Every structure is written in structure tokens, then in C-alpha cells.
From TrEMBL:
Keyword list, A-Z: Membrane, Transmembrane, Transmembrane helix
Protein name, as recorded: Uncharacterized protein
Organism name: Oidiodendron maius (strain Zn)
Keyword Membrane: yes
Localisation per UniProt entry: Membrane
Keyword hit for Transmembrane: yes
TM segment ranges: 214-236, 248-269
Length: 298
């Protein structure tokens, strides 16, 4: 107060725009006598960057909500998180949600109210030390203006905190909706895979039964029956090595009988196939909108 000089260090990182703060400091020559001018400008610049970042995050959150269908009346045809056929790119959407959450938690506004409170206490001490003289009238008016600016920044940070809380809640809701959609897609795919596996198993069992029937008939009965039938007839005379002229009777009986057996097997095969088809129809009826599920899964 006696020297009317204020010394300090402005330490900034590469992410902070210190040049903009210094430019505003040079343009505020009428208020440069107040030692809290530079801290106030730093707070204003920092809160402005936080507000701009929150605005970008909210814009990105709205696009995510459009892709997930959480905003009624919005079309996701031109949404960057959807494919050309309108389906949602869940992998890309999940990465964007994680990125939004990380950006939202970067420099959270919860740390600034305490700093503004400390600044307010320091400004009150400074205001109490200003002598109430005519020469100090300009300093007092400048200090009152700075106190008003401080009150404005405190209200501003409360608004930013509200936006931060609302955006965080929206991101949480979208993450839950995304995980639920992914779980539903997985359940649909698992259900369809189970149905197709059941059909493949039923078809394999059906074909295996038919092949097993033919194999059993061919291996067990037909060779022995054929040889025994031929050799046991009177058409062959092994003593004289002659064949009877009535050998045609064997073919007249064997061929129709073989055809009858084949016909019976075909009827059984078709009946069994019809039963399997009926089971498949009952399975499809038990699945609501099976065709739509297949299309959505594809």
C-alpha cells in the first residue's frame, strides 16, 4: 500500500492462453492500480474456456442422444455415429462417450468456488486498508467495481457447476442406454444362434436317422436275404448246373416287394419330415417378429 507497486509471477501452462490475459491486462490501464486485476482476468479467461468446453461437450452429447434415439423427433440419418443403413456404430459411440466423460472431468468447476472465496477474503482485507480520503476515491470506486465483478464470477461458476452436473447426468443416462442396447443386441443374436443351432441339430438328426435306416437295411438284411433267397430256391440245380425256366417268378415277387418296401420307407421319411417342419413352425410362432430380429441382427 505504501509503495503503490504490486509484484507477482504469472505461471501458465501451454494449455492456458496467457497472451490473451496479458493483452486484456494492457488494455485495462484505468484499473491497473488494483492489485487484483490480474487474478480477476485469469479467472475470467479460465471460466470462459470451461464454458466453451462445456458447450462443445453438450453439442457432442446431443449428437450421441440422437444416435441412441433418446431425443424424440430427431433423425439420426446424418449422425456421425450411424452407418449408411441407419444402424448405430456402438464401438465408435462408446469411445465418444468415454472421451466426453474425460473432457467433462477435466478441470471441473468444483475447485474454483474455494479459490474465489479466498480471493474475496483478500479483496475485503484490501478494501478495509484503503484510507477513506478524497485522493483514494478512485481506488475505492475501482475496488467496489472489482467486488461486483467477483460476485458475478461467483454466480457464473454456480451456473457452470449446474451445467456440469446436468451434462454428467446425461452422459450417465446415455452410457446406461448404450450398454442396455448392446446387451439387447447380444441377447437377440444369442437367441437366433440358439434357434439356428437347434434347427441344424434337428436336421442333422433327421438326416442321420434316414441314413441309419438305409444303412441298417442294406447291411444287415438285404445281402443275407438276397443270397439266401437265391440259393434256397428250386431254380438252381447244383447237381446238373441248370436254371429253371420258372426263374421269372422270383423277379415277379422280388421287384414289387422291393418297391413296396421303398414306398413304405418314403412315406415314413415324408411323415417324419412333416413332423420336423411342424416343430419348426411352432418354434417360429413362439418367437415374436423372428424375421425382423434376423434383419436387425444382420
Amino acid at each position: 500500500m505504501k509503495s503503490r507497486e504490486t509484484s507477482g509471477f504469472y505461471k501458465a501452462t501451454t494449455n492456458s492462453d496467457c497472451q490473451a490475459v496479458l493483452k486484456k491486462l494492457k488494455s485495462s490501464s484505468s484499473q491497473v492500480g488494483n492489485p487484483f486485476l490480474l487474478p480477476m482476468l485469469i479467472f475470467q479467461e479460465e471460466l470462459g474456456r470451461i464454458k466453451d468446453r462445456q458447450r462443445d461437450i453438450r453439442r457432442q452429447v446431443r449428437r450421441i442422444e440422437d444416435a441412441l434415439g433418446l431425443r424424440l423427433g430427431r433423425q439420426a440419418d446424418t449422425n456421425p455415429y450411424t452407418f449408411n443403413d441407419g444402424t448405430v456404430d456402438f464401438e465408435f459411440l462408446n469411445r465418444e462417450l468415454v472421451e466426453c466423460s474425460a473432457q467433462l472431468q477435466k478441470r471441473t468447476p468444483m475447485v474454483y468456488p474455494e479459490a474465489l472465496k479466498n480471493l474475496e477474503e483478500a479483496m475485503e482485507v484490501y478494501g478495509a486498508a484503503i484510507p477513506p480520503t478524497i485522493d483514494a476515491a478512485e481506488t475505492i470506486n475501482c475496488h467496489i467495481a472489482f467486488m461486483s465483478r467477483l460476485r458475478f464470477q461467483q454466480r457464473r461458476i454456480r451456473v457452470i457447476e449446474t451445467y456440469h452436473s446436468v451434462t454428467s447426468t446425461r452422459l450417465t443416462a446415455q452410457a446406461n442406454a448404450l450398454y442396455n442396447l448392446i446387451a439387447q443386441k447380444d441377447n437377440k443374436l444369442n437367441y437366433l444362434v440358439a434357434v439356428e443351432s437347434r434347427r441344424i441339430a434337428a436336421a442333422s438328426k433327421y438326416e442321420g436317422t434316414a441314413m441309419r435306416t438305409i444303412s441298417i437295411l442294406g447291411i444287415v438284411f438285404l445281402p443275407g436275404t438276397f443270397v439266401a433267397s437265391i440259393l434256397s430256391t428250386s431254380f438252381f440245380d447244383f447237381q446238373t448246373a441248370t436254371v429253371s425256366h420258372l426263374f421269372w417268378i422270383y423277379w415277379a415277387i422280388t421287384v414289387p416287394l422291393t418297391l413296396a418296401v421303398l414306398l413304405a420307407w418314403i412315406l415314413w421319411y415324408r411323415t417324419n419330415k412333416h413332423n420336423h417342419l411342424e416343430l419348426d413352425k411352432q418354434l417360429e410362432l413362439s418367437m415374436p417378429n423372428l424375421a425382423e430380429r434376423r434383419l436387425s441382427a444382420k
